[in-house]
Amino acid sequence: MHPGLQQDLEQFPQILERTRQIAENFLAGLKQRPVCPPLERQQLQPGDEQLAQSGTGALAALDDFWRHYEAGISASAGPRYFGFVTGGATPAAVAADWLVSVIDQNSQLSHDTIAAAIELATIEQLKSLLGLPETHSGSFVSGATMANFAGLAIGRQWLGQQRGIDVAQQGLAALGEIQVLAANPHASSIKALSMLGIGRHALKTIASLPHSEAIDTQALERHLAASAGVPTLVLASAGTVNTVTFDDLPRLLALRERYPFWLHVDAAFGGVAACSPRYAPLLAGWQQADSITVDAHKWLNVPYDSAIQFTRHLALQMQVFQNHSAYLEAPTLRPDNYLHLTPENSRRFRALPLWLALKAYGRDGMRDIVERNVRLARLLGAELAASDDFRLLAPVNLNVVCFALNQTAGDAAAARDRFIARLDAHGVVRCTPTLYNGQPGIRAALVNWMTEEEDIRQTLASLHHCLPEQI
C-alpha cells in the first residue's frame, strides 16, 4: 500500500474527529456567517489548480483546505439564505449523509445491501406524507433536473406506445413531431427536452392567466383542439419559482380526458406543501398525474443530490431505463429494481438522509417546517408591502416573496442589481434577482428548517440598511 494511504488508514479515527471538529465549528457559527462571501474569498490559492506529485495526507489536506477556503464558503445552509429555493440539512439528514459516504453503498437491488429496501420504504413513507396513491412508484435521482428528465422520458415512451412505436428501441425519429405545452416551465424541464432529443423548439408557450403565472386552460384547450393528433406532453407547475403559483390540475385532468396527453407535474418544492392539510388543496388532482417531480434538497431539507421522480407507468419506465449486461440481473418489473428504473447504473444511497429525517421528525416535524416558512414569508411580505421603500410584485401565495424597489425613475434593473450587490456585501440575507411581468424584481424563498421570526427581523433590517440614500 502507498505510504500515504497506509498512514491515513492508521489515522482514520483522527481524520474523522478533525472533520467533526470542523463541522461543529461551522455549524456553531452558521447564523453569523455571511450568506455571500466576498468574491475575492471565492478564488483558489496560487498553485491549487495543479496536481501535486506527492500528497500531504488527509489531515494536512483537510487543514489546508479549511485554512485557505473556509472564508469562501457561504451560509447557504443557514436560516437567511433565501436564494435558490435551497433548504438546509436537518441534524438527522446530516448524520445520515455522513454515513452514506462512510458505508458507500450502491443502492441497487443487488442482494448484497439493504439500501434498495430502505429506498422503497422511504418512497412509501413520502407518498403517505404527501397524499400520493399506491398506484405511483418512485425512485431517487440527483435533483429536480433529473426527475423532470425521467418523467419526460417516460412520457416520450408513452407517446410512442399510443402509436405502436417503442421509442426506447426505435428512437425518437420513429415517432416524429412532439409538442410540449406549458405556461411557465422551469428551466430544468427545458434542459431535459434538449437532453431527450425532443428539442427546446418543441416547447409551445401557452398564455398565462391575467396577473398570474398559472396556465390559461382555455388557451391550452384552443391549442389542443387546433393540434389534435400531435403527440403532446403538458408540463404543469405546482409552485412556480417567482410566485409559487399552482396550475389548475383538475382542469388539466379534464382536458386530458378530451385530448389525450402526458401530464407531468413539476412540484419540485411546491409538492411538499401537501404535507400540510392547510395547503394540500393547492395540489388537488396531482394524484392522477402521469409523472411528478419532488425535490428533497429543497423543502424536505436534506443535503444536495436528492430528488424523487414519481410515475404511475412503471412498466414504461423500465422500458426506457432497463440495463442489459451479462453480469447483471435481468430486468424484472418491480418498484425497487432501480438499476432498470433510473438514468444511473451506480447510485449513491441518497434515500438514507430522507429516511432518517422522516424517522426523526415524522409527519408533524415536516408540517412544522412548511407552515412556519409560509407564515414567515407572509410576515416578510406584509412588512415589505407596508414599507415606503419596497413593493410586492405579486401576492405571497406560499413561501416565496417577489418584490421590488419602490423606484419611480431611472433604470430599475440597474438599481435592483446595485441593491443586491450591497445586500450580498452586507452578508445578512441572500436574495436573488428575477423578472416578473416584465418588471425587475427580487426573490426571497423561505425553505430552511431553522428560519424563525428573528431572521425576518434581521432580513428587514438588512434590506433597509442596503437601500441607497435616494431610491
Structure summarized in a few sentences:
By secondary structure, this protein is α/β, with parallel strands linked by helices. Helices cover 40% and strands 11% of the residues.
Structure description:
It is a single chain. The chain has 471 residues and is α/β, with parallel strands linked by helices. It has 14 helices and eleven strands. It has helices at residues 3-10, 12-28, 58-69, 91-103, 115-130, 144-161, 167-170, 187-195, 217-226, 249-258, 314-321, 351-386, 412-426, 453-465, and strands spanning 137-141, 179-182, 203-205, 232-237, 262-266, 291-295, 307-311, 390-392, 400-405, 432-436, 439-445. The strands form two sheets. Strands 1-7-6-5-4-2-3 form a seven-stranded mixed sheet, sandwiched between helices. Helix 5 (115-130) packs parallel to helix 12. The longest helix is centred in the C-terminal third of the chain and has 36 residues, at 351-386. The model has no long low-confidence stretch (mean pLDDT 95).
Looking at this protein, list some descriptive labels.
aminotransferase; 40% helix; PyrdxlP-dep_de-COase; 471 residues; alpha/beta
Integer average pLDDT? 95
Largest sheet strand order: 1-7-6-5-4-2-3
Q: What percentage of amino acids are in beta strands? A: 5-15%
Shape: globular
Order of helices and strands: HHHHHEHHEHEHEHEEEHHEEHEEH
- Radius of gyration equals 24 Å
Major sheet size, sense and barrel closure = 7 strands, mixed
Rounded to the nearest angstrom, the distance between the terminal CA atoms is: 65 Å
Low-confidence stretches: none
Instruction: Give me the number of helical elements.
Output: 14
Give the helix level as a range of percent.
Answer: 40-55%
Structural class: alpha/beta
Number of strands: 11
Cofactor: pyridoxal 5'-phosphate
Keywords: Aminotransferase, Decarboxylase, Lyase, Pyridoxal phosphate, Transferase
Pfam family, one: Pyridoxal_deC
Family: Belongs to the group II decarboxylase family.
